[in-house]
Amino acid sequence: MASISTNVTVRQATPDDAGRLIGVLAETFLHDPVADWLIPDHDDRRFISYRYFTHIVGHGLQYGHVDMAADGSAAAIWYPRPEPSPAVAADHRVGVREATGTYAPKFVLIETMLESHHPPEVHHYLAYAAVSPGHQGRGTGTALLSNHHQQIDPLGMPAYVHATSTRNRDLYLRLGYLPGPSMVLPDGGPKIWRMWRAPLGITIPASFFTPHLSDR
C-alpha cells in the first residue's frame, strides 16, 4: 500500500466548487492518452474537454460523490454501483452528446465499451480522478483516493476503476488494486486497464478476471 501524504486535506465537493474541479479535470485530461484518440485535433481539445467536464462534474455532484483536495488541486468522482437508474443513464448520455458535438460518436463508443466490461458486483466506481499537472508527484492523488478507501473499507465495499495510462495504473497498483484483463480502443487507440480493489478478507469475483471478446 502507498503511504498517505499528511499535507493534503480532502473534503467532499459542493456545487460551489464546480468551476475549479472542471478546470482540474479538463486540464489533466489534455495529457491523457485517451484524449489523443477521442479528440485528435489539438485546436478543439481544450474547448471540448471543458464542455465535457462541465457536464461530468455537474452529473457527479448530482448523482455521485465528489471528493477534492481542499486547495482545489485534485478531484475524484465516485459512483456507488450496481447500474444507475435508466433516467440517470439517459441524462448522462444526452449530456455527453451535447457537450462533445462532432466527437460524440467516439465518446459514446468508449462509454459503451467501458460499461460492457463493468463488474456486476456491488462496488464503488471511480469514474474520474485528476491531479493538476503542477501538483503531480506530491502524494496528492494517493491522499485523495485513500480518503475514500478509508470510508468504504470498513463496509467491506470493493472499488473499481479504469486506468487509462501506465502512470495511473501504477498508482492504483500501489493503492491495492489488482489488474484484470485489459481492453484496447479500436482504430489504433490506447490500452485501458480494468482494476479492482477488494478490502482485506473480501473475495475478488472470478468474473472480474474473465476476458471479454474485445480484450487483448
UniProtKB/TrEMBL annotation:
Pfam families: Acetyltransf_1. Keywords: Transferase. GO terms for molecular function: acyltransferase activity, transferring groups other than amino-acyl groups. SUPFAM superfamilies: Acyl-CoA N-acyltransferases (Nat). The keyword Transferase applies. The keyword Acetylation does not apply. Residues 8-205 form the N-acetyltransferase domain. It comes from the Bacteria. This is GCN5-related N-acetyltransferase.
